[in-house]
Design a protein that fits this description.
The structure is a homodimer. Chain A is of the alpha/beta class. Chain A folds into four domains: about 5-90, Barwin-like endoglucanases (Beta Barrel), CATH 2.40.40; about 95-155, Transferase, Pyrimidine Nucleoside Phosphorylase, Chain A, domain 3 (Up-down Bundle); about 165-290 and about 340-410, Pyrimidine Nucleoside Phosphorylase, Chain A, domain 2, CATH 3.40.1030.10; about 420-505, Pyrimidine nucleoside phosphorylase-like, C-terminal domain (Aldehyde Oxidoreductase, domain 3, Alpha-Beta Complex). Helices cover about 40% and strands about 20% of the residues of chain A. Chain A has 19 helices and 19 strands. The first copy, chain A, has a six-stranded mixed β-barrel. In chain A, α13 links the parallel β11 (about 290-295) and β12 (about 325-330). In chain A, α5 (about 130-135) packs across α11 (about 255-265) and α18 (about 440-450) runs antiparallel to α19. The N and C termini of chain A lie far apart (about 75 Å). β2 of chain A pairs antiparallel with β5 (about 50-55) of chain B, so a sheet runs across the interface. Chains A, B: Its EC number is 2.4.2.4. Chains A, B: One of its GO terms (biological process) is pyrimidine nucleoside metabolic process.
Chain lengths: ~525, ~525
């Protein structure tokens, strides 16, 4: 059975990271090979091979019967011109599927297994179904610490790894990371100017918001370009010592990005996956020293101290084995950090702190100084305990602000958007003391108001835990560009504004020493 | 933010059971709503709402900027005409996702949880990722027996349920089912004529082959139409007492079909899922009495007797609670049943048995009599132990053959294809006794030869376990229509023909009493 010659045709459908091949139902290959919709296939052309999922097409405008349509992702990966001849075959399952099945059956995976799985995932040879199976089978405490170590190692090996030594010599490459879950909390945008002003190297790449109302990349983008090609980014780091850029283009730990695309819709973020994800990205990005922030609170990702300690030990074990200097700080995650929630409002908070504005949110300032101080103590010339003072001096002297301006200039300055035209004040329904707040609820209200797609949208907090309020006093102000967004956000806030007002004595004391 | 008016456009892409919506990247809705590729959306038109996954399109020939493209499945489910106005919004996760997350976290699900999950799955509100997560989280022994009971109940409730009483009165509606894994084994095509000739009601719907070289529906289709609309099927059952039809169109336990589309690529078939799948289909199809065949063997689905006993008890518990009379038979699954593997060759075996041909495969004949005998004993007028004799009398008298001819006529007779033009003989490489055979290997070789897409393809066994062979003696003959298929199958058979030849004393005795 000789296949008729098929010609590659680009089908302008963006399937995100999934390779899709389109064949017309009347194409003789469909019947001869017994292809069905969603068959897994391999496409070969010009010595290149990709895996894809098949969609059967009934419309010749999409694919004529003797063409082989490829989605944008598949076309890019195959890398041949339109009209090139190609072959399509049933795909054998990728070799590591046997390991996946063993993990589903509850077995422990070895180093080679995990390397094979990550190589197949990074090579786009896993379907969404197989990815979801891996994520669920390695969820919770299903991975022991050596499996997490090997998973991290395998994620790094399956992508690019930046070596800053050509640019920076053997100086430490420092970074900070927060496991997330707390609105506001834009400490990275303060920490990078402070530690690079101290002379350290901090090439910080951040994510955009996915389920939150703002990511560091979204917030920096209010003021500067963040989508920088790797060579520009390296030039900026050589010039200024750092950057605050979007990390999405660098092919660092690509298997992690692919797994995240499945973990997110399932809202799965297990300890093992979190450790492998964060540490693989940092090590692949060339970091040698890392300060890691684990906020703890009733509506944070980590809810109890024992859970935080367990997670901390897992991070320390894996980092230690992979030669990354790690300092874990367990911080107070009971409420948002700073006042603004949303890119423009968070950028305003950051600039107030950098300008030593007396109106600046003190919680954001203190937390940033404390994190930057620990990073500065990675400098072998700095004595233990001096970091915080050095960080404060850099901030108060205006050197951090000057350094931020230099970073903005180097990355490319952008004009911030005008403040949001529409506002709505959410008021305390009763008098009392603010005893708790639901971070997830505030984040959801901010997203409905339009953040982060609308950078000026979000909410601006007027109160903190422990404050005593009168009935009718302002809790926070909603900002929106569009009436419909404001109406949605307002509706949600009116159903439950996220704050619990109670008696003054019932306030929980802040957790740990980190938050203040 | 008022959405511009979108018009529905049918996009001729068969995405199998997945609803896909296509929007052009320049459609203002994409930016305004912050849609990305693979966003989950709801589409509303004319009071109908469906869930879909979004694909972003760059080609106006597929979807112009103010149209809302829908894949075939989505278009069918929404049920409005092309050009109808529609709205698209971010989808809230289906309500039962909270239950899914609890199951992923290892919790037990209650009756209401499982009903909610199955209703959402049957309503196409789960993405492939969420389906895979459910399948993995309920894999192995993750479901206790009450969860399996409630899952079964929920699968039935989420679809149609046939009530045969209007057609058949209160007579038992009998069925038989094999959990699968053994090539050949076409007992259903013998059992249905025998028990309906006895006067029982046996409206048998079967599946097509998915991973095997032939299903009962594929084999019956060699001789008769099997894709019958429900009203024709009911008329045939009224007339003849039974049918041997394809069950794919009946909307019986549709959540099960959707879950199977995910279980299959993962090769997951856990006890709980198997029990819920089989029993939900049988009860939804209106069966009141069921004989269930569990073959046990080293390369069967169930590999050990204790495993078979455990599975038997689970089937019995759930069937008992749901009012289904169940008889489980554990049978010998060490080797294929009958000689042929592939639709035409298996149909030949069946007809040889019905014709009382001395060449008929005795193992197939004995197993069918034994199963039919147990089914006949569901008849309250038959004494325990008489069933086998009654079944044998029906077969030997030619009444089973006459009944099969009546079924073929009623369903619509088809002319069988000509025998395969290409053959290749696989010979014993050494002399000795056949001590074991790999069912999976034989199935794979038969599939490569073209079965079931090419009904005359497959393989024809010349030997059985325990036979003594000479070097060069025929083990089996490959049949194919196409040279390339024959070459592939031959290559696989030459690498390993599936049979182990050893010393005469090492043959494993058959398991249980069932197989002979």
């Amino acid at each position: 059975m000789q296949q008729p010659t098929l010609h590659v045709r680009r089908v302008g459908i963006d399937t995100w990271r999934e390779n899709v091949a389109y064949l017309h139902r009347d194409c003789p290959v469909v019947r001869a090979e017994g292809f069905q919709a969603l068959s897994k296939v391999t496409v070969q052309a010009n010595g290149e091979v990709i895996s894809a999922v098949l969609n059967v097409v009934d419309d010749e405008r999409i694919v004529p019967p003797c063409d082989l349509g490829l989605s944008e992702e598949a076309f890019r990966r195959l890398g041949v011109a339109e009209g090139h001849t190609a072959r399509i075959e049933h795909a054998e399952p990728p070799p590591s599927i046997a390991a996946l099945r063993r993990k589903i059956a509850g077995e422990r995976l070895g180093r080679d297994d995990l390397h094979a799985v990550m190589a197949d995932i990074a090579g786009a040879r896993y379907s969404k179904i197989e990815l979801a199976a891996f994520v669920v089978a390695t969820n919770q405490y299903e991975l022991d610490r050596d499996e997490v170590l090997h998973l991290t190692e395998a994620m790094i090996a399956a992508g690019r790894r930046i070596d800053w030594r050509a640019d920076l010599g053997h100086a430490p490459v420092v970074d900070k990371h927060c496991i997330g879950g707390i609105p506001g909390n834009r400490t990275s945008m303060l920490v990078v100017p402070i530690v690079t002003a101290h002379g350290m190297r901090c090439p910080k790449t951040s994510s955009r918001a996915i389920t939150s109302p703002a990511g560091t990349a979204d917030t920096m983008e209010v003021m500067a370009e963040v989508e920088l090609p790797m060579d520009r980014l390296q030039a900026i780091v050589r010039q200024t010592g750092g950057c605050i850029a979007w990390g999405g283009t660098a092919d660092l730990s690509p298997a992690d990005d692919i797994l995240i695309s499945v973990e997110r819709p399932l809202a799965i973020d297990s300890p093992g996956q979190m450790v492998a994800s964060i540490l693989s990205k940092k090590i692949a990005a060339g970091s040698t020293h890392l300060v890691l922030d684990i906020p703890v609170g009733a509506s944070a990702k980590v809810r109890t101290m024992p859970e935080a300690q367990r997670l901390k030990r897992l991070f320390e074990y894996v980092a230690g084995r992979l030669g990354l200097q790690l300092e874990v700080m367990v911080t107070d995650g009971q409420q948002p950090i700073g006042r603004g929630i949303g890119p423009l409002l968070e950028a305003r908070d950051v600039m107030q702190v950098l300008r030593n504005d007396p109106m600046a949110p003190q919680d954001l300032r203190q937390k940033a100084l404390w994190l930057a101080g620990r990073m500065i103590e990675f400098d072998p010339d700095v004595r233990g305990g001096e970091g915080w003072h050095l960080a404060r001096d850099i901030l108060e002297s205006g050197r951090a602000l000057a350094q931020m301006e230099a970073l903005i200039e180097a990355q490319g300055r952008r004009t911030p958007p005008a403040p949001a035209p529409l506002m709505f004040d959410v008021l305390a329904p009763t008098a009392g003391t603010l005893v708790s707040v639901d971070n997830l609820r505030l984040a959801r209200i901010a997203r409905l108001s339009g953040a982060p797609q609308v950078p000026e949208a979000g909410l601006d907090l007027a109160v903190r835990l422990g404050d005593t309020v009168q009935a009718g006093q302002l809790l926070y102000r909603l900002h929106a560009r569009f009436e419909a967004d404001l109406a949605f956000a307002r509706q949600l806030a009116e159903a439950d504004n996220g704050w619990v007002i109670g008696a003054a004595t019932s306030v929980t004391p802040p957790l740990g020493s980190g938050g203040r």
